[in-house]
Design brief:
Helices cover 54% and strands 12% of the residues. By secondary structure, it is of the alpha/beta class. The chain has one domain (2-201): Rossmann fold (3-Layer(aba) Sandwich).
Length: 210
């Protein structure tokens, strides 16, 4: 089973690109959704409330992501503390999902993961796909999608300072500006490149976070 990591900044279009690629017979694992699941783990809830305060726990006993976000986005040290608690649980959930897909003989999986290059999730991939869009485009998408204030959008955009590093280290890049048909054409070209790479390398080189 081939694995591809789809990386990029907030609101760059990773999920859209992943869905387009998956139409060729693959599956998508959205690490943001696994992150939501991880935030429901009793162990994670205990550790986060101890680190960031009991007020981040909602009425149902899970983490209130918006309250947590106000405390960590825009604060690099706090964000690193958050990731150190949550990433191991996300990695465990990811590996569990991939084992299930492997048993089902899924030909390839796209890991929609902004954090893949900055977190060791214990998973090797065959290639990294960087999804890009200008900052002002991502800001407008973020406001429209999540209903965030201008200050909240700015904090989330500042929380990902390593976009240039991610893009340079990726195997292929896709710019998501323009119409959906234009994006479909770019995705098709990237898929062809990945297939040529697979034939040339005999299945991929096992790319992993370095």
């Amino acid at each position: 089973m081939r694995l591809y990591a789809v990386v990029g900044g907030i609101a760059a279009g990773k999920s859209t690109v992943s869905r387009m690629l998956a139409r060729r017979g693959g599956r998508v694992v959205d690490l943001d959704r696994l992150g939501h699941q991880a935030l429901g783990s009793p162990r994670v809830v205990r550790q986060l409330s101890a680190r960031f305060g009991a007020d981040i726990v909602g009425a149902a006993g899970g983490i209130d992501r918006r309250r947590l976000g106000r405390k960590v986005f825009g604060h690099p040290r706090r964000l690193r503390a958050l990731n150190a608690i949550v990433h191991p649980e996300i990695g465990r959930l990811l590996r569990q999902r991939l084992r299930r897909y492997a048993r089902a003989r899924v030909p390839f999986v796209l890991i929609d993961a902004a954090l893949f290059l900055d977190a060791d999730l214990g998973v090797k991939v065959d290639a990294v796909i960087a999804v890009t869009a200008p900052r002002d485009v991502r800001r407008e998408r973020l406001r429209a999608r999540d209903g965030l204030s201008a200050a909240e959008c700015a904090a989330r955009l500042r929380s990902q300072p390593r976009l240039g590093v991610w893009t340079r280290r990726a195997d292929v890049r896709i710019d998501t500006r323009g119409s959906l048909p234009e994006l479909e054409a770019r995705v098709e070209e990237v898929w062809r490149r990945l297939q040529r790479r697979r034939r040339r390398d005999g299945g991929g080189s096992g790319w992993r976070r370095k």
